[in-house]
Write a structure and sequence with these properties.
The structure is a homodimer. By secondary structure, chain A is α/β, with parallel strands linked by helices. Chain A folds into two domains: about 220 residues, Rossmann fold (3-Layer(aba) Sandwich); about 170 residues, Rossmann fold, CATH 3.40.50.261. The first copy, chain A, is built from 16 helices and 20 strands. In chain A, the strands form four sheets. Chain A has a seven-stranded mixed sheet, sandwiched between helices. In chain A, strands 15, 16, 17, 18, 19 and 20 form a six-stranded mixed sheet that branches. In chain A, helix 13 runs parallel beside helix 14. The longest helix of chain A is centred in the C-terminal third of the chain and has 21 residues. The two termini of chain A are about 40 Å apart. At the A-B interface, helix 5, helix 8, helix 11 and helix 16 of A face helix 5, helix 8, helix 11 and helix 16 of B.
Chain lengths: ~475, ~475
């Protein structure tokens, strides 16, 4: 198969959930509900010998008893039952030969590092291998493909109902189920909920691994950005080569852990991965244009930004702030990203800004920074932002406002949103809208227009730095100059 | 006066609000409402020639017409009216001599850098000086003293009603109104709302400045921790000496900006402050045991932690995680704080942990780290946490959980909260409760018990690092060894 067998995970015609349950506290219930909620269009087939019906669907007592075609099997049944489950698979395949993929969400396999755990994992994989069935897991939280409305996770995604199944351009592969689950829940909780395209928790990588999925995502036309949480991989060279090839075409963001000796040891205890010498990874990531992030928060921000905000076409940054202190904080942060420069705007733009703003506004002292002052009206905000965006010397804008009590904030949100939409395909803006619940409505409004906002100037600047790094890499690769 | 005249800002018997308004969009309305909401027990006296009543209170047309005693005056009337306002003050003082303090919240003074702005500021200060009235501002957002139920800010504090006027041990001085406002609103929006003791926006520092307030807070028995947002100060040496003296007694946290050349220039445009050579500040902060934070987020986290979490009595840290990946992320983060060490717990504790947890839990590989696994029950969480806390080799615990769908999260929150309360005066725990809205209820529950939680392992570790730095400084100052 040209897709290496991956297609079964993303466009299955039918999904059998082994261990499906009516008990809302059980993962086997959440999986069925998630498939409903995302609007999966194929057949959902519960399997559980103890139930007649699950969530209103007819339930089968064994895999070999399902009359319909089964393309994808999701196993959430306890690992102790794996022998029986795989016997049923074996029996079914001998007569029907229909199953193409298994997602084994259950834990209790190789990762528990016992003879019995290892034996169970071998049973799962040997049977699957015999029938050319690809396996994701075991010990994972499942797979989401929003583009095709498939959700086999047992995590409450928390995604607002109207956004379920709405696919962004970002696909994510995680070697940790907990990291995956937390990014999923946290991402859905943001003012601009993070819309994954494909979301892949790969657990023990018993069969399907980083390289299988990276190769699939490389060619996947709806995946525009790829992010990884990586603990370690047995063939580091091969993985890095794959990432290198892809990074030339699509941004590849990675949170690689095991950076310290203790962290590497912890990674090894966790997934049995050898983390490898961190400095080697670090150098190669840089050389290959792979965006390495340092924290979970930076991973979240960077994933979102690459999938929402247009890539800057240069490093010339203008910082426009309604708030004095936060503007200085942002200016400091910019200077800590050596790849960024403060933009020198034209005299004409400076003049226009001075005419637009109150006389005591500070325009370009220092160059590349304007303080429109706390007295700025809604019009001052949006007009000055547009003036700066129109200046040919500006590649990106950090836009900061601490919305005062006396400013009509919904009107501000509306007008900023419209401006962001207008410029979305042209120049990036990194809007920092402060603070707390006071601006939740404004940030949600901008989120609904499929743009994002930041909580602090430093977080916005960090992400811009990552995007400019990637632009510079691509520009060099194309033989461009900078 | 021994209090240097500061007492008028914190325990005024009466407050006249000049520019008080009934229009809810005006700052002059918010100030009166905030005084109501916080439960100010003295007299609130609106002054506005255009109104008969403001928010149900009798309104006076001039300061000189108020029959009652006025101890504190809040000016929110436009700066253009300052001549008239100060004439009224002059007239009143000649006969009554009652006003002790002025908070000038209005802008349009020295900070706008015009002749007229400077003249207005001189008018304000000269008259005040003539009558020994201390002035905070102009161009500030006001003062809150939760301990004495005074709130003269024009910011919607967003504080849940039942927490208004509840004072923590943290007092904060800000040279930027926007930074102050954003920390106030953001802090109130957290799962553990940030309870300031005194909150001081000092604007242009026309009269009252950092040193006046630091000296007051130094002696203030209810202020246990002091934090500053600092752009620059004309007498840097004197300021640093004051901070040095205080840091020996109380933790002093500072976000000092103008770190870069451009940032320093921006600071100079903003408040006319000379930022000074950053490296000099940096060295002296270290030498004096002053906790310098690098970002707004770190300031927020560190302020909260110092005022809520007990100071660790050493650097021996145990990381207890229910989640593999986030545990490794935390372990990496710990290794980037060289002042922290992974604790070596006793064989007895190790044995107890092994007996408590599932067989495939990872205990102390590496030393100082335990992965209680995603299968951990509520009992596993709290029992293992307590076992680690009881070990004499442990000074602090980073406790991480990504609450799974199948765990009874309210019960988990309840039991963790009880354990945190029990250990609150003994050993610090830094609870990382993930992720997003999924755990909001749990984090709020812990917040209501006056403890705090963190969103990511990295943020918890960073704050622990700051606390251990301060412990080490104090320990050395006492001639202790570590």
């Amino acid at each position: 198969m040209t897709d290496n067998g991956m297609q079964a995970f993303f466009t299955p015609k039918s999904i059998a959930v082994v261990g499906a349950s009516n008990n809302p506290d059980k993962p086997g219930s959440t999986i069925v509900e998630n498939l409903f909620k995302i609007g999966f269009e194929g057949a959902i087939i519960p399997v559980n010998p103890k139930e007649e019906e699950v969530h209103g669907l007819k339930c089968f007592s064994g895999i070999d008893e399902i009359p319909e075609e089964v393309e994808l099997l999701v196993l959430i049944t306890p690992s102790g039952a794996i022998d029986e489950v795989m016997q049923q698979v074996d029996k079914r395949m001998a007569s029907r030969n229909d199953i193409k993929g298994i997602i084994c969400a259950a834990a209790g396999y190789g990762e528990i590092n016992t003879e019995e755990g290892n034996r169970r994992e071998r049973t799962l994989l040997d049977t699957a291998n015999k029938w050319d069935i690809r396996v994701i897991g075991p010990n994972c939280i499942g797979v989401i493909d929003n583009a095709n409305r498939v959700d086999t996770t047992f995590v409450e995604t928390l995604m607002p109902e109207e956004l379920r199944g709405e696919a962004g351009g970002l696909s994510f592969i995680s070697q940790s189920g907990a990291v995956a689950a937390s990014l999923l829940m946290w991402g859905a909780s943001l003012a601009s909920p993070l819309k994954f395209n494909k979301f892949l928790s790969i657990g023990n990588m018993g069969d399907v691994d980083f390289i299988d999925l990276l190769e699939y995502l490389e060619k996947d036309p709806v995946t525009e950005v790829i992010a990884l949480y990586l603990e370690g991989y047995p063939q580091a060279g091969k993985l890095l080569k794959t990432m290198e090839r892809i990074a030339k075409k699509k941004p590849v963001i990675v949170l690689k852990v095991g950076r310290s000796e203790a962290g590497a040891k912890a990674a090894s205890s966790h997934t049995g991965s050898l983390a490898g010498e961190d400095v080697i990874y670090d150098n190669l990531f840089k050389q290959f244009g792979i965006i390495r992030v340092g924290t979970l928060e930076e991973l979240m921000d960077t994933m979102q930004a690459f999938s929402i905000i247009p890539l800057p076409r240069g490093n010339q940054t203008f910082l426009l702030s309604q708030a004095g202190g936060p503007g200085i904080i942002g200016t400091d942060a910019l200077s800590f990203e050596p790849q960024l420069s403060l933009a020198k705007i034209s005299q004409t733009t400076k003049q226009k800004l001075k005419e637009e703003l109150v006389p005591f506004a500070t325009v370009c002292n220092p160059e590349g920074v304007a303080d429109i002052t706390a007295s700025a009206t809604v019009a001052h905000h949006v007009n000055s932002l547009e003036m700066v965006l129109e200046d040919i010397n500006v590649d990106a804008v950090i836009f900061i406002t601490v919305v005062p009590t006396f400013l009509p904030k919904v009107e501000l949100g509306k007008q900023v949103k419209e401006l962001l939409e207008k410029w979305k395909d042209q120049k990036p803006v990194f809007p920092v809208i402060m603070a707390g619940k006071w601006v939740e409505e404004v940030r949600t409004m901008i989120g609904q227009a499929n743009y994002m906002t930041f909580e602090t100037p430093e977080r916005a600047v960090k992400v811009l730095g990552n995007m400019v790094d990637y632009y510079n890499f691509q520009n060099q690769a194309r033989g461009g100059s900078h």
